[in-house]
Design goal:
The chain has 2 helices and no strands. With 52 residues, the chain is an all-alpha fold.
Amino acid sequence: MKWSNVLLIVGLLVLLAGAVMSVMKIHPYSDYVLILGAVLVFFRGALRSRER
C-alpha cells in the first residue's frame, strides 16, 4: 500500500474522531483534532503528486 493511501486513511480516521468529539461537546479539543485531520488529508495530496 502506498504511503499516500495510508495517510489518507489516518487523516479520515482523525476527522471522524474530531467529528465524534464535536458531537459529544468536547469543543476545545475537537477543533484541534479536526484541523489536524484536514492537514493530514492536505499533505496526502502533496505526497500523492510526488509519488507519480
